[in-house]
Structure formats: structure tokens, C-alpha cells
């Protein structure tokens, strides 16, 4: 054999492709039902889009992107996450139209590229299906996205999915929380892992979801963001929980759900299923009410979800085995 596939990527063989097709068809069908339209964006974007949208200090931008210079000297990056390209396309093609009240609902199924340490369900090219609802602040839309995701898992036979829910606040209330978090953690800064010592300065919220045991023990005593939300965020979070209660969707409040990306505001959530390591989610998402303005559009609230298809298929296999 002269050639092998590059490290961290996978062939999907004829014997497996049926399950992929089934999962993709199930997602498409649900999106049709919920009135989301498909969008297909290019495999690569200007690097700057991901840097600006996802955040310079995030793991994705800091160390996981596949970035290259093309023959014209442009810096391009393979799709590093699902939302930023959709928002770029939404703005560039004026999908909003003339009606400021319109909610634009889009979905995608696409490969995502991350230079990540390869492990079960984590590949350097993995596949995501995602949905974005653009143009509404209503907590009911957050609930819709969550419900759509749960129905997807359930239709694939993955029944024991746990919804972990949090609010990460907004530019009005998060800075106060970050200050409180830093002053609580500061005396033990030397005991944190090296990554967290860096995050303390660059991205303090990420200390909360560190997998290091010592860090986790220290974070046990950290102040809780959802106790320090501004009235607007608190009201939004309370309404979302009420809506989920009405829909009979169980959830667990988890202050460590902060997501790895800078653009999240208010709602943040993850789905955890048996079959993958503890805390290894099969999908997640949240609100990003500032992102569209950051990308040069008018202030527009939005909420979305991204689901890892490789992990979903692992969870499905585990569910079938029991
Ligand atoms: Zn707030
Ligand atoms: Zn740490």
C-alpha cells in the first residue's frame, strides 16, 4: 500500500453508508416539517470570517483551523464550524428580504474540519447537521430548535438524551460575572492547568468546562452565571424553561455549559447521550444575538443548533445494543 488516508479522517464505506443516508434523510424531513430551508455554503471561507465570528481566543481559531493561502495569496479556511458561513451567506444574499419581522429558518448538512486530537467520534473531517433561526428573540424559537433536535435523536432510536441547559448572559451582564469568577479563582490560579491559566486572561468562561479534575474541583465553588443575569436575560431564561416545561421537555441546568465559541449570548445548551464519554455531547447550540451585527449586518437576534453526525451514529449504535 503506497497511500493511506490522512490521520484523523475516515472513509464511509458502502456497508455503513445506509445509516448515514437514513440519518440525513431524517434530519431533512424534520427540517421540512419545521419549515427550515436548506442552504449549502462553500467548503472554505475567508479566514477572517471565522476569526471574527468565533473569536480569536477560542480553541477553534487558536489551534484547530485548516487554514491555507491560495495561489492568489488569500488566506482561506476550511469550514471550521457551521454557523458563521450560514450567517455570511444570509447577509451577502440578503435572505432577510424587506420584511424586518420575518424569521429566516435555514438548515445545513456539511463537513466540518478541525485539527483536533483524533478520538472516538472526533475526526478532523466530521459532519454536522444544523439549523439556524434568524430574526427572533422569542424563547419559543430556542425551544423549537431544541425540540427539533430531540425529535431527530428520538427518530433515530436514541432515547436517553439529556438536555443540559444554561444561559451565558449578554454584554450587559457577562462582564460582571467574569469579574466575579476571576476574583473567586485568582487565589488558586497557580493550581489550575496551564490552559486555564491562559484562559483566565483570554477566555475565562472556558475555565468552567475544563475537563481537568483539579480545575473542575476549583470550579465547583465558582459563582454561577445564571444567578447574575441582567433582568432581560433572566426573563428570557425563565420563559425558555417555562416553554420547555409546557412542551414536556426535561432538562438539567448546568452552569458549565458555556460552549467553545465567543458568539453565544443567553441560551446555551448541549445534548449528551450514552455511548460516548461522559460530557461528550452529540450536539449543542444556543443564541447568538450579537453575531449578525458583528458580521456587518443590522442588529438581529438568532438561535441555532449543530449536531455531530459521527457521534449521533455512535450513540445510535449504543442505543440499539441495549
Ligand atoms: Zn444579560
Ligand atoms: Zn483547566
- The assigned CATH architecture of the domain at 14-160 and 274-280 and 294-321 is 2-Layer Sandwich
Shape annotation = globular
CATH class category name of the domain at 14-160 and 274-280 and 294-321: Alpha Beta
Mean pLDDT: 93
Ions, cofactors, ligands: which are bound?
A: zinc ion
Subunit organisation of the chains: single chain
Largest sheet: 8 strands, mixed
Query: Major sheet: order of its strands?
Result: 1-5-6-11-10-9-7-8
What would the CATH topology of the domain at 14-160 and 274-280 and 294-321 be? BirA Bifunctional Protein, domain 2
How far apart the termini lie comes to: 38 Å
Task: Provide a descriptive summary of the structure in words.
The chain has helices at residues 14-33, 47-54, 59-64, 83-92, 139-155, 174-185, 194-202, 213-219, 231-246, 291-294, 309-321; strands spanning 37-38, 44-46, 67-69, 75-78, 104-113, 125-134, 162-167, 252-253, 265-272, 281-287, 302-308. The protein is α+β, with helices and mostly antiparallel strands and 322 residues long. The protein has a domain at 14-160 and 274-280 and 294-321: Bira Bifunctional Protein, Domain 2 (BirA Bifunctional Protein, domain 2, 2-Layer Sandwich), CATH 3.30.930. The protein has an eight-stranded mixed sheet. Strand 3 (67-69) and strand 4 (75-78) form a beta hairpin. The longest helix has 20 residues, at 14-33. The model has no long low-confidence stretch (mean pLDDT 93). Bound molecules: zinc ion (2 copies).
Amino acid at each position: 500500500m503506497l497511500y493511506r488516508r490522512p490521520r484523523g479522517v475516515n472513509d464511509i464505506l458502502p456497508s455503513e453508508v445506509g445509516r448515514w443516508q437514513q440519518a440525513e434523510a431524517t434530519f431533512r424531513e424534520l427540517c421540512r416539517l419545521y419549515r427550515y430551508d436548506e442552504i449549502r455554503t462553500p467548503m472554505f471561507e475567508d479566514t477572517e470570517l471565522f476569526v471574527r465570528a468565533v473569536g480569536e481566543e477560542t480553541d477553534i481559531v487558536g489551534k484547530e483551523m485548516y487554514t491555507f493561502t491560495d495561489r492568489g495569496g488569500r488566506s482561506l479556511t476550511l469550514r471550521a464550524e457551521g454557523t458563521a458561513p450560514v450567517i455570511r451567506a444570509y447577509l451577502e444574499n440578503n435572505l432577510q428580504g424587506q420584511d424586518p419581522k420575518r424569521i429566516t429558518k435555514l438548515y445545513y448538512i456539511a463537513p466540518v474540519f478541525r485539527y483536533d486530537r483524533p478520538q472516538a467520534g472526533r475526526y478532523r473531517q466530521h459532519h454536522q447537521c444544523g439549523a439556524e433561526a434568524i430574526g427572533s428573540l422569542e424563547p419559543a424559537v430556542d425551544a423549537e430548535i431544541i425540540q427539533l433536535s430531540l425529535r431527530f435523536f428520538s427518530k433515530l432510536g436514541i432515547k436517553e438524551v439529556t438536555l443540559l441547559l444554561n444561559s451565558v448572559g449578554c454584554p450587559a451582564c457577562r462582564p460582571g460575572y467574569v469579574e466575579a469568577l476571576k476574583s473567586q479563582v485568582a487565589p488558586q490560579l497557580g493550581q489550575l492547568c496551564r490552559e486555564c491559566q491562559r484562559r483566565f486572561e483570554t477566555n475565562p468562561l472556558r475555565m468552567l468546562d475544563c475537563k481537568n479534575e483539579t480545575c473542575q474541583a476549583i470550579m465547583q465553588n465558582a459563582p454561577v452565571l445564571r444567578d447574575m443575569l441582567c433582568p432581560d436575560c433572566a426573563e428570557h431564561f425563565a420563559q425558555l424553561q417555562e416553554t420547555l416545561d409546557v412542551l414536556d421537555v426535561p432538562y438539567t441546568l448546568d452552569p458549565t455549559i458555556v460552549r467553545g465559541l465567543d458568539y453565544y449570548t443567553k441560551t446555551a445548551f448541549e445534548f449528551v447521550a450514552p455511548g460516548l464519554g461522559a460530557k461528550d455531547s452529540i450536539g449543542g447550540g444556543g443564541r447568538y444575538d450579537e453575531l449578525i451585527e458583528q458580521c456587518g449586518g443590522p442588529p438581529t437576534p438568532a438561535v441555532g443548533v449543530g449536531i455531530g453526525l459521527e457521534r449521533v451514529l455512535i450513540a445510535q449504535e449504543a442505543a440499539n445494543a441495549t
